[in-house]
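User: Reviewer 2 asked us to show a designed sequence for the structure in our supplementary figure. I'm pasting the C-alpha cells here. Could you produce the per-position amino acids so we can include them in the response letter?
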C-alpha cells in the first residue's frame, strides 16, 4: 500500500491513509469512515466501490445500490489475478458509444435547393441517417445555428441534407461533423451477473482461462467462509479444496482449467502493489464514467 509506512502499523488503514491521499489533490475532500457500511451511510453516494470485500457484503451492498440507482463497482486482487465488476444501473447513458475521434469533413460547396447537396472530402466516414451539424460556414450561415440534421450519402464527395432553398448563398469554408447520439444500456445487479457471466474477449482462446478465474474467485469466497482465512501459500491441500469448491459452484459452460485454479489458490494470499495499481486504475476510470 503506497500511502503507508512502518509507523502506521496497528492503525486503522483508512485513517492512516487519509492525509497522504488528500495531499494528492487539494480540490478533493477525502474523509475516512471506520463504521459499518449501513444503508443510511451508502445512500449519500453516487458511486460505491468495494475492495477486499466478502461476497456476502458485495451482494448486500450491490442489491441496495442497484435499487437506489447508485453506481456500484467491485475491485479486488488476489496474487497475480484481478477482478472488476461494474453495475451502473438499468438506465445508464453512454455519451460516446464509438469511443473514437469525432467524424468530420471540410466543406467545399453547399447548393441551394430541396434537398441541398454538400460537397466535401471524406464522406466515406458518414452513413445514411447520420445526424450532422455545421460550423464556420460563410455565406450560408443559417446552417451554423441549425439543429442536427440527417444526411444521405450520394457518393464519395457529396452528402444530401434538407431544404436549403431559402438560405443565403454559400460562399466558402465550413466543417460538417457527425453528432454522436447517446446510447442507453442496462446493467445487471451482481447477484444475477454471478450466475450467468457475460464474457466478451478479443481472443476466444482465452475464454476457458477467464471462466476458470471467475469460478476460482467465487470458490475463494467459499473457502474463506469455510476456513476463516485465505488458502496458505503453496499449500497443495488448500489449493485442492479451492478446486473442489470451484467444481461444485454450478455447471460450467466450459471445463475448468484446473492448473489455473490451483495456481490462483496457491498465491491468493499475496498482495502485489503493481497488480493492485493496474486494477485500481481501471476501477478509477470506471468511477469517472
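Assistant: Here is a per-position design you can include in the supplement:
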Amino acid at each position: 500500500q503506497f500511502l503507508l509506512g512502518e509507523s502506521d502499523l496497528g492503525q486503522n488503514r483508512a485513517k492512516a491513509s487519509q492525509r497522504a491521499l488528500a495531499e494528492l489533490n487539494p480540490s478533493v475532500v477525502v474523509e475516512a469512515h471506520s463504521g459499518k457500511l449501513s444503508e443510511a451511510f451508502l445512500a449519500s453516494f453516487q458511486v460505491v466501490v468495494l475492495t477486499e470485500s466478502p461476497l456476502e457484503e458485495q451482494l448486500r451492498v450491490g442489491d441496495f445500490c442497484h435499487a437506489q440507482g447508485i453506481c456500484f463497482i467491485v475491485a479486488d486482487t488476489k496474487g497475480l489475478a484481478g477482478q472488476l465488476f461494474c453495475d451502473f444501473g438499468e438506465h445508464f447513458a453512454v455519451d460516446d458509444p464509438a469511443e473514437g475521434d469525432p467524424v468530420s469533413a471540410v466543406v467545399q460547396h453547399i447548393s441551394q435547393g430541396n434537398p441541398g447537396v454538400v460537397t466535401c472530402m471524406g464522406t466515406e466516414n458518414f452513413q445514411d441517417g447520420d445526424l450532422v451539424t455545421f460550423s464556420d460556414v460563410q455565406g450560408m450561415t443559417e446552417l451554423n445555428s441549425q439543429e442536427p440534421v440527417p444526411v444521405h450519402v450520394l457518393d464519395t464527395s457529396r452528402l444530401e441534407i434538407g431544404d436549403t432553398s431559402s438560405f443565403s448563398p454559400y460562399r466558402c469554408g465550413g466543417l460538417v461533423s457527425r453528432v454522436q447520439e447517446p446510447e442507453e444500456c442496462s446493467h445487471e445487479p451482481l447477484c444475477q451477473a454471478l450466475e450467468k457471466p457475460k464474457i466478451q474477449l478479443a481472443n476466444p482462446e482465452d475464454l476457458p482461462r477467464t471462466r476458470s478465474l471467475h469460478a476460482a474467485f467465487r470458490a475463494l469466497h467459499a473457502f474463506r467462509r469455510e476456513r476463516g482465512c485465505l488458502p496458505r501459500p503453496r499449500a497443495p491441500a488448500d489449493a485442492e479444496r479451492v478446486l473442489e469448491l470451484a467444481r461444485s459452484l454450478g455447471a460450467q459452460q466450459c471445463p475448468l482449467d484446473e492448473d489455473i485454479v490451483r495456481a490462483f489458490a496457491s498465491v491468493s494470499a499475496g498482495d502485489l502493489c503493481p497488480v493492485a495499481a493496474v486494477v485500481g486504475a481501471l476501477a478509477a476510470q470506471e468511477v469517472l464514467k
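For the response letter, you might also mention the following. Residues 207-227 form the longest helix (21 residues). Helices lie at 13-23, 39-42, 55-68, 190-195, 207-227, 236-248, 258-267, 273-288.
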